[in-house]
Design a protein that fits this description.
There is one protein chain. The chain is mostly helical. The protein has 3 helices and no strands. The two termini are about 30 Å apart.
Length: about 100
């Protein structure tokens, strides 16, 4: 009995290029989400730390971090829907 047959590795079920692209894109979107979460937390901690100090540069840097994370989130969501739309237009089933 093979361990891949027990757990069902997605790499063993690849039959075409669309399957490989799907696995790659899903991994990229998960990594992008984790990076987004990290930057939200980093910006929030920066805002909390700068609240008690008289350093406007630190507060502005924290705001810039959160703003950049939000812009990145919008870009990732837009990329997701562009890929989804492209897959639909090309007739590729279950691209993402």
């Amino acid at each position: 009995m093979d361990i891949n047959s027990i757990f069902g590795s997605p790499l063993t079920q690849l039959t075409n290029v669309a399957g490989l692209v799907t696995i790659f894109l899903n991994a990229i979107f998960v990594i992008a989400g984790l990076i987004l979460l990290f930057y939200f937390i980093l910006g929030g901690i920066g805002m909390i730390n700068s609240a008690g100090k008289n350093d406007p540069r630190a507060a502005e840097q924290a705001k810039q971090t959160v703003t950049s994370a939000l812009i990145g989130f919008v870009v990732v969501i837009a990329a997701y829907w562009i890929v989804k739309l492209t897959g639909t237009l090309l007739g590729i089933q279950n691209l993402i």
